[in-house]
Specification:
seven-stranded mixed β-sheet, alpha+beta, 12 helices, 23 strands, five-stranded mixed β-sheet, 3 domains, Nucleotidyltransferase, domain 5
Length: 539
């Protein structure tokens, strides 16, 4: 078994180094005999690779048991705090389709797509799981707005097998997706956003060809040719120099890793196996892959009317094989470019390993946006106990809210009304305070001009002292040396008489004032004030 795990031990305290915009993610790629674990963080559209492991199950009898053990062993080195876990699944049973629907309410879209799927998928509705991704808005010839959707469908039994496997590993995850669909974010930043670019994820079980415009997916399809097909082809027996030769899967994979795709004419050998014969054995699979790529290009431009594809990029396990891009270019009669997305890391990683894990990196960009999730809703909350806790908390919060509504809300409404009324009268109050200050200044001048034994400054101060807090004077008229006429406003909606009575009692208890006599009192309920005039005797 070939597997490797590398991790930068100096990053154990990585939680302290992450910014608020970063997110740690563990991606587990399940792809038959070839599985990959990638651990890293996404920070401001940059990926930092913290660790990876490649698990090959070739030649293993109990593949599920071996895979479980490898995953469990690897997870011990992962910090669990603050990370999300996504599962990416590759399968020949995967169906990718593009459908057009009229502009519908969000809740009606799943049912409408389900009806469309019945026309092309023979499986019963309860036996499949599908999710969709809005692609773009379009307008038909009659000017009606429509929307295109990418639909990803898989048999329910495969998803349940994944869930069963993860229960054995005790790995908690929140999503089952297909990483090949989200590689647009890995495209070079200097590409023309108006043009179409394709990415071929040449994986183990199959290949997925996806087309992107402005880094957003517009079409994708599965091609049933993977690296596994090349290895199976190398297992066919040939006669060479009088000997019957064939390569076992492990040997075939070792040969591909070491020599890649041989040149057309060569007399070299690998461990006694002629390289020219290797190419002959693999040629039917490579031709099949190339034919399906050409058909997809034509379907996109002719049937879907999306236009021509500017360039094709190659990634995945197939991209790690030397000479693969060049060989496919010869079949397609157009260049293929290896997808090389810059990744920040302190790990030692070869170009081959980087090509293998590249599809997993695209999944990092799906954390913060809508994407495919094939995990059934009933599994997204793991246990009934969690649901019970959430239900209890919801009930408790509901009771608290009801109590708040019955106890605090009525009072808060009353207080709010009073505050609003005071706010309306506040400008008037401020203006009256200014008038009061002006009157006091005038009386001080009068007191300086008047002759006699009385100090009118003291009198004005005494009048201010006897006023209740709700009363403000609007006019102070000194009739003679013994009599003062007071005019003012009472800021109150109720108990105005009590406030006036309090003022008169304060005057009677004063050392300078006496004999208060209320001339008149006018209430204004709509304004919540009362005006008055009162005569006061100076002792």
């Amino acid at each position: 078994m070939h597997s490797r795990w590398r991790r930068n031990l100096s990053l154990r305290n990585v939680d302290k180094l992450l910014s608020k915009t970063s997110k740690k993610l563990l991606v587990l790629e399940l792809d038959g005999e070839f599985n990959i674990l990638v651990y890293g963080e996404l920070n401001r559209e940059k990926i930092k690779l913290l660790g990876f492991k490649i698990i090959s199950l070739l030649g293993t009898d109990e593949q599920e048991k071996q895979l479980t053990e490898e995953i469990v062993k690897t997870l011990k080195d992962f910090p669990q705090k603050g990370r999300e876990v996504f599962i990416s699944h590759h399968s020949l049973s995967l169906y990718l389709g593009r459908f057009t629907l009229p502009d519908l309410p969000q809740k009606e879209i799943p049912q409408a797509l389900s009806w469309q799927l019945k026309k092309v998928i023979p499986e019963k509705e309860e036996d499949i799981i599908f999710d969709y991704l809005p692609i773009k808005e379009v307008t038909d010839r009659e000017g009606v707005k429509q929307k295109n959707y990418l639909v990803c469908l898989i048999p329910r039994r495969e998803i349940e097998n994944i869930i069963s496997l993860m229960e054995k590993t005790k790995l908690e995850f929140s999503k089952i997706t297909v990483s090949s669909l989200f590689l647009g974010s890995l495209l070079p930043s200097d590409l023309d956003p108006q043009k179409i670019y394709a990415i071929l994820d040449f994986s183990w079980t199959a290949s997925i060809l996806s087309f992107y415009q402005n880094k957003k997916i517009i079409f994708s399809r599965l091609i049933p040719v993977g690296v596994k097909n090349l290895i199976q082809a190398l297992g066919i027996s040939i006669v060479y120099k009088g000997n019957h030769l064939s390569l076992e899967p492990e040997k075939a994979w070792q040969a591909l890793k070491e020599i890649g795709i041989p040149e057309t004419f060569t007399e070299e050998e690998w461990q006694g196996f002629p390289l020219s014969q290797m190419l002959i054995l693999m040629r039917p699979e490579l031709e099949k892959l190339s034919t399906e790529i050409i058909r997809s290009l034509e379907y996109l431009s002719s049937t879907l009317k999306e236009g021509n594809t500017e360039k094709i990029f190659l990634t995945g396990i197939g991209a790690s094989l030397k000479g693969m891009a060049k060989n496919l270019s010869n079949y397609l009669h157009r260049p293929l470019e290896e997808l090389n997305f810059p990744v920040e890391t302190e790990l030692k990683i070869s170009l081959q390993e980087k090509a293998i894990i590249s599809p997993s990196l695209g999944t990092f960009f799906t954390i913060f946006e809508k994407n495919i999730n094939l995990l059934p809703p009933e599994y997204r909350l793991d246990t009934s106990s969690i649901r019970k806790i959430i239900k209890s908390i919801s009930l408790f919060i509901s009771l608290l809210l009801l109590g708040y509504l019955f106890i605090f809300i009525p009072k808060s409404i009353i207080y709010k009304k009073e505050i609003n009324l005071l706010k309306k009268e506040a400008p008037k109050f401020e203006k009256l305070k200014e008038i009061k200050k002006e009157l006091q200044q005038k009386e001080e001048i009068k007191s300086q001009l008047l002759q006699g034994k009385f100090n009118f400054t003291w009198i004005i101060q005494e009048i201010s002292a006897v006023l209740p807090s709700q009363v403000t004077l609007t006019k102070l008229n000194i009739k003679d040396i013994r009599n003062v006429e007071l005019s003012g406003i009472v800021f109150a909606k109720e108990f105005v008489e009590n406030i006036i009575a309090e003022m008169m009692k304060n005057i009677e208890n004063s050392k300078l004032l006496s004999e208060p006599k209320l001339e008149w009192l006018r209430k204004s309920p709509e304004k919540q004030i009362a005006e008055f005039k009162m005569n006061v005797r100076i002792r």
